[in-house]
Amino acid sequence: MNISVIIPLLNEEESLPHLISWIEKVMEKEGFSYEVLLIDDGSNDGSWKVIEELSQKNENIKGIKFRRNYGKSAALNVGFEHCQADVVITMDADLQDSPDEIPELYSMIIKDGYDLVSGWKKKRYDSKLAKNIPSKLFNSTTRLITGIKLHDFNCGLKAYKKDVVKSIEVYGEMHRYIPVIAKWAGFRKIGEKIVQHRKREFGTTKFGMNRFINGYLDLISIMFVSKFSKKPMHFFGLWGTVMFILGFLAAGILGVQKIIASVNHQPMRLVTDSPYFHLALVLMVIGSMLFLTGFLAELIGRNSSTRNHYLIQEKTNLEQD
Q1: All structural domains of the chain with their residue ranges
Q2: CA–CA distances in Å: residue 128 to residues 101, 125, 135, 136, 204
Q3: Please, what is the end-to-end C-alpha distance for the chain in angstroms?
Q4: Class for the domain spanning 3-228
Q5: Which residue from 71, 124, 147, 292 puts its CA 20 to 30 A from 274's CA?
Q6: What is the C-alpha to C-alpha distance for residues 232 and 294, in angstroms, rounded to an integer?
Q7: CA–CA dist 134, 224 (Å, integer)
């Protein structure tokens, strides 16, 4: 099979017939073998009924319905688990992503050898204050921290090699950082394609300003996990040791000053009256806590079922499991 199209959706009953019709026309024109996986993320409108009707008309249309709303990451992850084609395309269900982009995205994966291609909606029709400006700040920060040169990390229109989606796990709200997760998993040929952004025709946007706050928190989380998930002591132990030593040295300096003053019969207030003593004490306590946190994290990691889970690209002269 050439292409799997994964479409997470929430309350998009009006858009779905138009979107599926458009996808069918593109696939027939290009002669692709394909499947469309519609992941209903707990819709409370008639979206599932529409999916059932569409799947009855075309066996390439497949549907999965969640009992409640779990979020876009969960929908994509389930789609990744069930897809079967060599190239996987993800897109939104609101008709703001154009299926006409699919053939070129497919070509960039198959012919140009990209592991992942992310869409870039260079010209947008969103409110500049509400979405465009915050998105630019968010994307520039992510580029700086991750080193991945993409302009639009959160674009729903992306293409992947099958190996990529079968090797990564998307959870929480990490769908924004799939290129980062893919790079962390060893897929480094990540490209970008300028794609069309269309105005929403039906329904209402699921956008909320809280996604930018959550986005930065998720970025910190994924960067930490990618660097220290298998070696937490390298982080907690290092900073715990640094803080404890600084606190110990500060306390030692205060003690030496007190001894020198006593030997020279000079007046000096109690060590415990100095604010530096309390700062030193806090540093040593925090340092000890960080060090113990590192130990606990190592113990948990030792018992993790994925502690020795590594992605193998190829084998030679070995039996293929």
Answers
A1: 3-228, 233-302
A2: 24, 8, 9, 10, 18
A3: 23
A4: alpha beta
A5: 292
A6: 6
A7: 23
pLDDT tens digits, one per residue of 5-15: 999 999 999 99
The predicted model scores a pTM of: 0.75
Amino acid 312: pLDDT:
59
Condensed to tens digits (0 to 9), the pLDDT of residues 163-218 reads 999 999 888 788 888 999 999 888 999 999 999 887 766 666 655 556 666 766 77
The rounded distance, in Å, linking the Cα atoms of 271 and 79 is 63
